[in-house]
Structures are given as structure tokens and as C-alpha cells.
Write a structure and sequence with these properties.
mainly alpha
């Protein structure tokens, strides 16, 4: 998103200012209304904290050997997070270089995608409540495959650039639905006693995907010279493989044990 009408450099500066302001505005409810029970924490040396954190992370990684369904989910998460993070990073460049949009049009289409993400997040939440996070996530990933292939085909076949607008909204809706459905699934699959540890691994996998995605994009586009449409199709393939892996994770929505996990307080001490 940028401030329409400003020059290129000035607009980019205002993007960061606007993002910072939005972070502050949307964080205010958390500061005011989200409370956790007070816990007594004894002071510990920094070195010990680092060692304890490393040991905890290593125990969580070893514990994954006994969690086949969770391993499949995290592998799937790596692939579709790779595609999603890369699509976010390159969508504006793709719109100008492959679709033929001006900088202003690219900014507007990104704004349309953000609006789609807001709508997708709220809508997907209802599906998660009704059909469960795993089935909902499968549906969201299907939308990702279709929308990414449309993005590639628009440039391949030199279709009218106006078609990129609804596709951008669809990509945004799929992005909002992605994070709305995959986090509850992680909560459902992770053992309650190791919830915090496995969420740490989940976050680490997502960060690693954020690095690998742009790297693979650069290899396909620049290193191999295959072009951006092929790279977008490659992202769609990543999501399709993620769906194959996720299909092996059974849907436990509605079962008593899953409900117990879902109702477990995030701050509970399971020692």
C-alpha cells in the first residue's frame, strides 16, 4: 500500500509510516483488553536463559519424531508459507513488469488484495468453526493453487490486465484464510504439554520458508532465466504438494480430545 499521488521515493517512505501507525492502532485493543494471570518469575542469568532455551528447542525437535501428523503439517506449512510469503513479496513487481500496470495501478491492486485478505480472514473463521481447521485449510490451499495459476496464465497468454484485479482480490482472500485456518490446526495437533515448544518450531519453519521462497524465485527467474510466470506456476506446485501432505493428516475436528486442546488456555503451565 502506498499513498496515491506521491512520488515514488516519497510514497515508499509513507508506506513504512502508515504501516507503523496501523501496527500501533491495531495493537491498542491487545494492550487494553488482553490480560494474562500474573506469574512469579525469579531472576535468572542471561547465559542460563540462553542454554535453557536451546535445550528446550532441541527437546521439542526430538519430540517431533513421535508426532507424525504434526511433522506432516509442518512440512506442508513450510511449502505453502514459502509460496505465500513469496507471492506477497513479488506481487507488485509482477503487476508492473508482467501485467503492464503502472506504479499507481500496482499500488491500488495491492490495496485491493489487502481488502480481500480482511474479508477472507473473517469469512474463513466461520468455516473453521463449522468444518474444522484441517478441511478449511485444504479449501484455502485449493484457492491458492487456482489463483496462482491464473496469475501465471494472465502473463503467459497476454490476457487483458483487467483480469488481474479479481485475481489479486482472490489471492488476498486466500492469504487471510491461510493464517486463520492453519494456526487453529496447529493448536489441534500439538500436545498440550508442549504447545509453546511446538509453536516455536512452527514459527521457525515459517521464518525459514520466508527466506527460501525469494531465493528459489530468484533462481528460477534470474538464474535459470525461465521468467516470472514460470516462477508463479512453481509456487502453485508447491501449494499442491502441500495439499498432498496435508491430506495425510486426519481431520479430528469435533472429537473430544481435539476439543479439549482447543479449549486449553494458551498460558497454562503443563509441567
Amino acid at each position: 500500500m502506498a499513498i496515491i499521488g506521491l512520488g515514488g521515493t516519497e510514497a515508499r517512505v509513507w508506506v513504512f509510516r502508515l504501516a507503523a501507525a496501523l501496527f500501533l492502532i491495531f495493537a491498542i485493543p491487545a494492550f487494553l483488553y488482553v490480560q494474562e494471570p500474573a506469574r512469579r518469575v525469579s531472576p535468572v542469568a542471561i547465559g542460563r536463559k540462553v542454554r535453557d532455551s536451546i535445550a528446550t528447542a532441541w527437546r521439542a525437535v526430538k519430540a517431533l519424531r513421535e508426532q507424525r501428523e504434526l511433522r506432516l503439517f509442518l512440512g506442508s506449512h513450510f511449502l505453502y508459507a514459502d509460496a505465500a510469503n513469496t507471492a506477497i513479496a513479488v506481487l507488485g513487481i509482477y503487476a508492473t513488469n508482467e501485467v503492464g500496470f503502472t506504479d499507481t495501478q500496482a499500488q491500488l491492486v495491492l490495496l485491493a488484495g489487502v481488502d480481500g485478505a480482511i474479508f477472507g480472514g473473517f469469512t474463513t473463521g466461520r468455516f473453521v468453526d463449522r468444518y474444522g481447521p484441517r478441511n478449511t485449510l485444504m479449501g484455502v490451499l485449493s484457492v491458492w493453487v487456482v489463483s496462482l495459476m491464473f496469475v501465471a496464465v494472465i502473463a503467459w497468454l497476454d490476457l487483458p490486465s483487467s483480469l488481474f484485479w479479481p485475481v489479486a482480490v482472490l489471492v488476498g482472500a486466500a492469504l487471510g484464510g491461510l493464517w486463520t485456518s492453519d494456526r487453529p490446526l496447529m493448536l489441534q495437533l500439538a500436545p498440550p504439554a508442549r504447545l509453546g515448544e511446538f509453536y516455536g518450531i512452527y514459527s521457525m519453519v515459517g521464518r525459514f520458508a520466508a527466506v527460501m521462497g525469494p531465493l528459489l524465485w530468484a533462481i528460477i527467474v534470474t538464474g535459470l532465466g525461465w521468467g516470472r510466470p514460470v516462477a508463479v506456476a512453481g509456487l502453485a506446485i508447491f501449494v499442491a504438494v502441500a495439499m498432498v501432505m496435508l491430506a495425510k493428516v486426519p481431520n479430528r475436528f469435533g472429537q473430544a480430545d481435539a476439543g479439549a486442546v482447543q479449549n486449553q488456555p494458551m498460558w497454562a503451565d503443563h509441567r
